[in-house]
Amino acid sequence: MLTIVLGFATSLVYGFADFFGALASRKINPMLVTLVSGFSGLIFLFTMTPFFGMTLDPSSIFWGSLAGVISAVGITCLYASLAIGPISILSPLGAIMSALVPMAFGVIFQHEHFSTIGWGALAGILVAVGLVGFVPGENVRLPSAKGLLLGLGAGVSIGLLLICIDQAPANSGLTPVIFLRGFSIVGILILMLAAFASGTRFKPQSVAKKSWPATILAGVLDSSANVLFLTAMRMGALSVVSVLTALYPLGTIVLARLVLKEKIAKVQLAGVLLALACSALLASGI
């Protein structure tokens, strides 16, 4: 039961981080937002080490570093796919793939098994991910081959990232997510240098000063979600935690409703209700 709660909480906090990151990106270059939030998240993780521990063993460093490299690739694919669009299709596609990859790994290589109710609940949550992440519009178009490949690449990368974190020793504390964050920052810096060399300039406007707190908060929330995922994964099955984590669009639309007063579409509300119902089933049917 606690694994379900932590997995669901992970998705919400990831969604909250996305909301504040998107909010800051309205006034600040998205790469700068990613870089600054990365640093704030890394500092937050270091403040948590007295409570969760940190061991510099080779295995934890390797898996955390690999996850960081994959994260940089995944973020690049994600941003590129959403820029091509349509977001209403590619966003939930990426979320579903990010759940299916570690779910398949857990079942095939870690021999995770569930009851009939458990399998049904997992399938229902995957459907809910698609419904929650779907942004209805009047002119929904089909994605191009490039957009589709980038969306799939983003989802697979996120799924592989979760698998890497899962492979780190259970007694390694926060080492894997700290190195994940560190190598993600290095990856973003490389991308920024490449963009700068091509002529892009990163000059935040004076009106953007109010957006920096949101940027910092996004990093803290994202790292908090990393810690929640790490804890949930060490307590339960990778398949369950990864599927629940894929519900991260839920946290974003909740804050959008509360803070920006945006309306929740009926299809998204149906996804929320389905996710809650299937999570309850999962807790009782594993």
* C-alpha geometry: globular
Order of helices and strands: HHHHHHHHHHH
DSSP helix count?
11
Main sheet specs: none
Strand residue percentage: under 5%
Structural class: mainly alpha
User: What oligomerization state is this entry in?
Assistant: single chain
Note poorly predicted spans. Answer: none
As a whole number of angstroms, the C-alpha radius of gyration is 18 Å
Distance between the termini: 10 Å
> Would you count the extended β strands for me?
0
Helix content: over 70%
> Number of folding domains?
1
Average predicted confidence as pLDDT: 87
What report would you give on this structure?
This protein is mainly alpha-helical. The chain is built from 11 helices and no strands. The longest helix is centred in the first third of the chain and has 27 residues, at 58-84. It is globular.
